[in-house]
Recover the amino acids of this structure.
């Protein structure tokens, strides 16, 4: 699985209220939510984002509310991956559970600029910056989360495992 | 290796003798919670699993509170969907508008959480119940769906930061000021993925309402949960509100903490978080001249009875400053009624304050008090992100009910000490 696209770059603490403002939460329709994604900090985002594009942000991306509408909105804009130095924990869970690819990589965040062409290989965690001809290595996911991702999200995973009880200790 | 309070609760619910930070476990849930924004998404996911019933009709709670009473047609349809789901699945703890409240006020009040429980809620402020010595944390809608289906949730066992509180806060310092101080100190990601454990002799000087306000804002430091040591006040509260059996967990003496902070409550000052992050805090002495347009007193952080008493004490026999809109929204119908019986509602209305039905309303910029471009509010809520209470160019300052009420009288952010002489707290 690979992703390739143009980078939209943001700073620290991009919160769920700017990813999708509460005033639009009277629907959970992904295409409706996508129309307003990021509009409070970047009015141009929705006009310019193309299928496959990549969001790169610094620390604590997705902090704030538990609204799953945030990863749903990002995914519905066509964004193929979010790379951040760190993610807020509920956003991290929600992204995995809903199948929005995310990667933690401080080095990538430091070096990638707005508008760079970036390619991500999810198997290896290698992020390649075509514009700057650099590559960065992202943190891998723990095995258990890779299982959820492989099952295409938590619901499929649960469906498959409902009958098996037992713990998931690593 | 010893375990923290949180680790002990998680181990007990995972059927394990011991857990370590970083370990992935599956824990049994005592309660799964959702609201009118997150539950519709969870229902769609729940239906995909194909289970007929929820795992336990007593252990699911659904509270429409964010946009209720329904603010528009789309909201009404979302609420209709969760109402029908709740009836069809015979969910016992579905709360219709007349018996509702903001979920994090309502759930403890209804006795649905007791010490030692494990609770997940599709709302980030589910961490509030840590005040009761429970492990409770916010998750998303898909986790809620999986929790309703299986009664279990996966967790990565968190490491922890210990806050040892000592001393007694001065008159105008509340739990809200303590937690704002802490968030200002460690930052909005200072406790990312971690537990915040509150212990020390100082906690006896914090009421349950103070503790709820503090645990509520653990998420504003990035925390997975915030949890208080259980003491007599906790047990009194639990016994008064619930018949459920509880379990008291304390950290082992050799439990490992990433950091330990000692906080002397007696030297803290009223604290205000400036836009646009909860860690952008200043002591009331350093606030300067900040004119405001609106005052919001309420929310799952500070809409409890003590909060309203403090605010009413300051506003009694006075008038709010001309041109300032002041909105009080009690956290639950029960608190509303109590405030009415104590004469607080009359004080508010006479002072020129509007009192709203319990709802999240303005806290998340939903309805009932939205800000226009360039306007400023001081609020007892928990978030001051860009656009949180309305227009992206409006501003929210976070403070205690005392500071908010004092500011209502002057039209600018004000130290309660400057407007009140007599003992009101
Ligand atoms: S009052 Fe505000 S913070 Fe609390 S649950 Fe409602 S929207 Fe969330």
């Amino acid at each position: 699985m690979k992703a390739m696209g143009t980078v939209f770059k943001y700073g620290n603490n991009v919160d769920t209220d700017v990813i999708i403002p509460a005033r639009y939460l009277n629907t959970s329709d992904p295409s409706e939510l996508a129309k307003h994604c990021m509009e409070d900090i970047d009015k141009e985002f929705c006009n310019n984002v193309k299928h496959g594009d990549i969001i790169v942000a610094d620390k604590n991306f997705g902090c704030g509310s538990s609204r799953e509408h945030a990863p749903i909105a990002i995914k519905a804009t066509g964004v193929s991956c979010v790379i951040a130095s760190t993610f807020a924990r509920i956003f991290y869970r929600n992204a995995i559970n809903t199948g929005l690819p995310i990667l933690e990589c401080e080095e990538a965040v430091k070096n990638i600029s707005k508008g760079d062409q970036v390619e991500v290989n999810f198997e290896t965690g290698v992020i390649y910056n075509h514009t700057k001809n650099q590559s960065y290595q992202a943190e891998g996911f723990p095995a258990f989360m890779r299982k959820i991702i492989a099952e295409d999200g938590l619901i499929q995973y649960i469906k498959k495992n409902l009958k098996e009880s037992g713990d998931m200790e690593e | 290796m010893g375990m923290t309070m949180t680790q002990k609760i998680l181990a007990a619910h995972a059927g394990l003798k011991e857990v370590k930070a970083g370990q992935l476990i599956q824990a049994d849930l005592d309660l799964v919670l959702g609201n009118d924004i997150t539950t519709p998404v969870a229902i769609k996911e729940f239906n995909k699993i194909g289970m007929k019933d929820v795992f336990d009709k007593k252990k699911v709670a659904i509270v429409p509170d964010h946009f209720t009473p329904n603010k528009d047609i789309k909201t009404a349809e979302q609420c209709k969907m969760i109402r029908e789901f709740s009836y069809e699945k015979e969910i016992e703890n579905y709360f219709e508008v007349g018996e509702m409240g903001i979920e994090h006020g309502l759930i403890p009040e209804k006795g649905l959480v007791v010490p030692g429980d494990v609770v997940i809620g599709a709302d980030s402020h589910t961490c509030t119940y840590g005040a009761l010595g429970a492990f409770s944390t916010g998750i998303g809608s898909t986790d809620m769906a999986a929790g309703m289906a299986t009664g279990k949730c996966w967790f990565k066992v968190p490491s922890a930061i210990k806050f040892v509180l000592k001393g007694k806060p001065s008159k105008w310092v509340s739990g809200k000021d303590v937690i704002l101080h802490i968030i200002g100190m460690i930052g909005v990601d200072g406790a990312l993925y971690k537990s915040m454990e509150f212990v020390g002799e100082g906690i006896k000087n914090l009421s349950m309402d103070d503790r709820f306000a503090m645990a509520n804002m653990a998420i504003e430091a990035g925390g997975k949960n915030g949890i208080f040591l259980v003491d007599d006040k906790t047990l009194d509260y639990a016994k008064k509100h619930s018949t459920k059996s509880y379990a008291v967990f304390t950290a082992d003496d050799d439990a490992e903490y990433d950091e330990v902070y000692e906080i002397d409550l007696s030297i803290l000052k009223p604290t205000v978080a400036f836009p646009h992050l909860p860690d952008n805090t200043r002591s009331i002495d350093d606030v300067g001249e900040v004119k405001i347009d609106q005052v919001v007193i309420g929310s799952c952080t500070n809409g409890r009875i003590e909060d309203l008493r403090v605010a009413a004490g300051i506003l009694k026999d006075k008038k709010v400053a001309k041109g300032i809109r002041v909105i009080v929204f009690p956290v639950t119908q029960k608190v509303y009624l109590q405030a009415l019986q104590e004469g607080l509602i009359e004080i508010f209305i006479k002072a020129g304050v509007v009192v709203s039905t319990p709802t999240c309303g303005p806290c998340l910029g939903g309805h009932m008090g939205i800000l226009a471009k360039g306007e400023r509010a001081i609020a007892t809520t928990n978030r001051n992100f860009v656009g949180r209470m309305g227009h992206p160019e409006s501003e929210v300052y976070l403070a205690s009910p005392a500071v908010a009420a004092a500011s209502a009288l002057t039209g600018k952010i004000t130290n309660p000490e400057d407007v009140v002489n007599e003992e009101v707290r």
